[in-house]
Amino acid sequence: MIVKTLMNPNPPVISVTDGLKEAFRRVNDRGLGRVIVADEVVKGILSTRDLLSILMSFCPSACTQADLYKMGVTQASGYMTVNPMTVGEDQDALEAITIMVTRNFGSLPVVNALRRPVGLVTERDFLLMFQDLDPMFSVSGFVTPRVNTVFRDTLLEQAVRMMLRRGFRRLPVTDEDGKVVGMVTAADAVKAAAKAVEKLEPELFFGRRIREIMKTPVVTVEEDRSVNEAAALLITKGIGALLILDKEGRAKGIVTERDLLIALHYQLHLPFAKGKSRA
Known about the structure:
279 residues, alpha/beta, four-stranded mixed β-sheet, 13 strands
């Protein structure tokens, strides 16, 4: 299978001269969570985490309309990841998966023969390949057992700082008894941030509580389910993670699209590993 069959065509793209305001606006397009910076050819890429980090740097303790305006007109190219790794549209999907797993990338810009951006492929896109594979592994082998959570009354900006500090893209939300009541993601936070930047109203992001933007109800999975089933659930629900809950409704584990991509990478490489062992 080649990358072109799985990629998202017509990806969000901004020019090297566009401001960060345009990056915030475009990063939410179609829910891909990334925007490509290009001047005919790919020059850089910005993710939701990048934009949230930029927002926090412009507003380290408080935020005013002037701060948001200054950030909005600042060229996005000054903050992008420069010359990101790309894949060709006719490249083998397994090669692209290997790049993403080994380099810890959440997405890859897809380019044509002229190196112009024609698509974007994400972790979730590759999970479609599970539908053609026999179940081999259970969720339990790829779950992260220690789950960081946040209270529903926590300020959004505090949750974002936690995500940035610990390298997360999502946090389960709990009530006062520790029971999971929702999920908040970096993508949710960027949507709120984009509105604040667009309208120059800091209060649309700063001062808001997690309970105002979190997604409910949470989608869960049992540990004995196959990773194929978990991947299908992520795709049909359009989400990036599944929770494993204990009998009291507390977070026992989490499995993300990154975890399932690693499982896919491992399963696709098994035939090659077996071939080498026979040799």
